[in-house]
Amino acid sequence: MLSVLDEQHLESDPGLEPSALSIQASAPGIFGAVSANFGAPRPGYACEECQYTSKTKSALAAHYRTHTGEKPFNCSYQGCGYAAAERGALIVHTRRKHTGEKPYKCDQPGCDYAAVDSGSLRGHRRIHTGEKPYRCTQLQCTFATAQLCNLRTHLLSHSDSKPFKCHHPGCEHATTTQRALNNHLAKHSEDKPFSCDHLGCGYASKTRSGLHHHKAKHSTSKPHTCPEEGCQFSSAYRSALEVHMRTHTGEKPYKCGHPGCDYAAAQSGALTNHSRTHTGAKPFSCDYEGCTFASATGGGLKSHQISHARERSPGPSVMPVPVGMPISELELEQIDHAPI
User: Fold this and answer.
1) Over the stretch 60-100, which tens digit does the pLDDT of each residue have?
2) Up-side HSE of residue 230: CA atoms within 13 Å toward CB?
3) Confidence band of 314 (pLDDT split at 50, 70, 90)
4) Helix (H/G/I), strand (E/B), else coil: 82
5) What is the pLDDT of residues 297-313, one digit of tens each?
6) Is 185 exposed, middle or buried (0-12, 13-18, 19+ CB in 10 A)?
7) C-alpha torsion 247→250→251→252, nearest 10
8) Most buried of the four, 56, 85, 133, 251, by CB within 10 Å?
């Protein structure tokens, strides 16, 4: 797994190939199982303390500060105490935390992706090319991905460890990543600080990722296209394309950790629903007065709510929907506005 320092090296030395970086193990037996098909490292300047190499002498000199602890590049924004060992890391910090500048833009037609650093753009471009250089080498695991961060998350599926725990009173939720925990913590708050700036849209979200996902609905562009020959799938969402690609590969990276259960899924949501068959949890409760129905899935609750809509508004305007079938936006609107 590439360390934070390795990622900083990529920014300070844009020509550096990831193969030249040290792949560090963060958990024995789990994070050591990483491979990247980048080819042989290029000749250059080698660090005497570790496996780092660079094509320029100046980048190697900057790298040595990661061993000495020296951080001569200080953020000039008032009140910010950030300091970095390399100038490139400071530049990325300034863009990410203070200016919001994203100078690295995707040149794929119809794609408006932009990034604060060149490494992120390189990773994004693999979505268009279909390249997946980051591979899991756990036994019998065929997982491969275009993004290093996705591999890091996947590797945790091979471990029972869930180190990020919710400290909200009475909540025992634990997860494998800080990002997932942050999204969970938003559920305990009524605040929705992320608002859509589209004209006439009043949407607000508890999370930044929720707002980003919502904004794609305002665009007719579907820049994320399937690279498989003969497949016409395209989506406004990068995550949707990643999930779709598993229909071609047969990949099911989300595995049940319950003893003796070999269930695996292509989507994390499917694994979450499956896990409730072991726990008996039914978190989706009907709020209709006097109704005690609860379901393990959101789709099950929506299907159930149709029965209440038929009771309140008999006739052909609301058609019966089999359990588990997705409910359309029109049908949900009929539920919301059915006369009482």
Assistant:
1) 888 888 889 899 999 999 999 999 988 888 999 999 899 99
2) 1
3) low
4) coil
5) 888 888 888 888 777 76
6) middle
7) 90
8) 85
How many Cβ atoms sit within 10 Å of the Cβ of residue 89?
24
Would you state the structure tokens that stand for residue 59, as one six-digit string? Answer: 């980048």
Find tokens 């609301």 and name the residue. 318
Sign of the alpha-carbon torsion through 337, 281, 179, 145 = negative
d(CA 307, CA 257): 35
d(C-alpha 23, C-alpha 33), whole Å: 10
Instruction: Note whether 110 and 90 are within 8 A (CB).
Output: no
Helix locations, the chain, DSSP H: 4-12, 57-68, 87-94, 118-129, 148-155, 178-186, 208-215, 238-249, 268-279, 298-312, 329-337
Instruction: Report, as an integer, the average pLDDT of 1-12.
Output: 40
What pLDDT does residue 49 have? 84
Q: What is the per-residue pLDDT across 229-240, written as a single tens digit (0 to 9) for each?
A: 889 888 887 778
Secondary structure tally for the chain: helices H, strands E: 11, 19
**pLDDT band (50, 70, 90) for residue 142:** confident
DSSP state, 77? S
Torsion of CA 334, 335, 339, 340, to 10 degrees: 180
Residue type, 236: A
Query: H-helix or E-strand containing 264?
Result: strand 264-265
Q: What is the DSSP letter of 17?
A: -
Residue 237: what residue type? Y
Whether residue 294 contacts residue 285, with contact meaning beta carbons closer than 8 Å, is answered with yes
Distance separating alpha carbons of residues 136 and 127, to the nearest angstrom:
18
CA 240 and chain centroid, separation: 11
Long-range contacts of 48-53 (CB under 8 A, 24+ apart): 50/22, 51/21, 51/22, 52/6, 52/9, 52/20, 52/21, 52/22, 53/20
Please state, rounded to an integer, the average pLDDT across all residues of the chain.
Answer: 77
